[in-house]
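Protein modeling request. Please complete all fields; requests missing the sequence field cannot be processed.
Requester role: graduate student
Desired output: 3D structure, token encoding
Chains: 1
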Amino acid sequence: MLSAYRAERRKLFAQVSTRALALVCALGPVAFAIVLSAQSGVPADSLLGVWVHNSGYAVSFVVLDFAGYVGFALLAGVLAGDLFSSEDRYGTWKTVLTRSRSRADVFAGKLLAAAVLALALVGLLALSSLVAGLVLTGDQPLVGLDGNVIPSGEALWLVLASWLVSIPAVLAFVSLSVLFSVASRSGIVGVLGAVLVALVMQLLALVGRGTWAHLLLVASAFDDWHGLLAAPKFYGQLIIGSCIALIWVAGCLAASWAMFRRRDFAGPPVSGRPGWTRPAQAVLGSMALIVLLGAIASVGPSAITKARLESAVLRAFNDLTVLQQRELGRTVPAGTELNLTTTCGRRSGKSEGPGDDWSCTMTVVRASAGYNPFELTPVTYDVSVKSNGCYKAESPPSFVGRETMVDAHGQTVINPLFTIYGCFDVIGSAPRCPRNTRCGEAVAPRPAGAAGTRTTPPAERQQQQRALHEAERAAGPRVMHEVEEAERKLEHETAHPQPEAERAPRTEAPAQTRK
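Delivered output (515 residues):
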């Protein structure tokens, strides 16, 4: 097997496609980082793309995020897609199998060469993106997916861990490319088959509200590193995604070995006219499978729920508000939590499932002077949620300001509250709202001095009662009693107006008479 491995490794290194792929992995992230450093724009479609100018670690995460869509599948297809079909194309199976090597040795050697080279290129891509980000941007702390600030040392280990957890999914696409190469005996199908499967999986991840079908996709394993950057961290999706990827590896390799072991290489090659039967069967079977997977995508409980989204957005808004105030030069103690009330819902349909029609309103409760002891400031975000639990929340500049702002040192930085990115656990238990916060309550602010009698909603009535209790404890029972007496006197005078003569000023009597 080692002899076969060394021979296949030399063959892969000698190919122009492999060398070009290695150069792309080594120089692509460097070029990407140079382009980012030369302009003020950011890749806003990526989760951590808004922070590429603030921390070099974000550059590596952005490269990992883009590679997870199609990049890793293309890498696996180039290395393993033509591994077995090339022998069929050149007719060299008889020469290979007549030597003192069994079919198992040849199969294992080819597979090992493709897997080792794929892991080497993934490591090269990770190292290049990390070095490019640190050299061109710096090793500043990284803002996580929930607004938490990650120190430089911890961010370095999280970058390495995130690239490591993508290895099972990369091996799954290598095994899938081997299966296409063995089954089709075509290099084109072997190279492009894994890429098409990756695109179909990304499409299926956008439809359906169920959780089970999405977790069975290999492409979902490339999103498992999101839990490492959340606060608090969650590992359930990472463990399940890695196990699913290993199951795909075992299934693809078992099917490939079953077909390779039973294949007849002794007889003369069979030549025939190419027809449309087999391509039509493959295409129709693939379309039927895609339709079936799309139909069962809604099977099972929905992982995107109102409670999960409210808790995640509220926590991220709190942490990013604290970060914004510190960048503006204000002193904010560690562990500060705002007094917030949030509610989320969908503009169409039931409040669950992925979609881009979510809306979250957060009400900031602040103390104020005057008749109303508290000032209520609502902030509304339009939220787009994916099936993996990651969301993007955007608010109009009239609420949170523009995309950039000037910090305490006079430098232009990203406004943390302009766009909020985050991820939450889709398989864990129902989350709880942080301390000093309330989820699922809609608070309508009442302007100071508003008059008239109207039906007060229960949520607003509870908020007013809490505000009065807080004011009573702050001012004391005596002051509140005087305010109530003044209000009753004003109501009595309004209900029983005095005649004009009685309201006229009376002539002062002498001091002795008054006495």
